[in-house]
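Why does residue order matter? Because the sequence determines the fold. Keep that principle in mind as you read this record.
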Amino acid sequence: MTKPNRSQVAQMVDHTLLKPEATTDDVSALVADGERLGVYSVCVSPSMLPLETSLPVAVVCGFPSGKHTCAVKAAEAAESAKLGAAEIDMVIDIGAAHAGDFDAVQADIAAVRQAAPDVVLKVIIESAALTDEQIVECCQASERAGADFVKTSTGFHPAGGASAHAVRLMRETVGDRLGVKASGGIRTPEAAAEMIEAGANRLGLSGTESVLAGFDA
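Structure:
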């Protein structure tokens, strides 16, 4: 695989700010940086909508624990879509995955899909907290429920963030039918390149500028 250049990597990036203490000024700076860096989108918390930007806006849902009811996640997604979100990054009920209840995982995703049918739906499975078998089952449930992407991590779980192993397994499971987003702990150009090599076609980054600086123009 040919190493992508800076512009190509930038177009894979959801430039992200999800800290609870983030202010409207912080988000305005995020948008300005994202536009300057040529990223694909900006990713923010739903309370920050609507945003003034030419970039697609991604918004998290059921974040970060995933322990919200289907109805609450669906309502959150619907409101975000109404306020201009082009993409929704939802967190599954990780406990349901641990319990082996993948019908519940699928129903949760399907509720959000139905509530926001016109957005790009990314499903955060929190891969570092799952076994390989659970990762595969969650990816399959996501596909059955109509998701567009599967995503490794929130970046907030103590088990950790993205790994090349998880990305590779996710890509093997969904093939080219769904996208794979790697996020959580990707702080260096080397880590970003490793995720892309493993099969990620979207990256969630907060330190975007320093990561992009490591790629050739």
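The CA atoms of residues 197 and 213 lie 18 Å apart.
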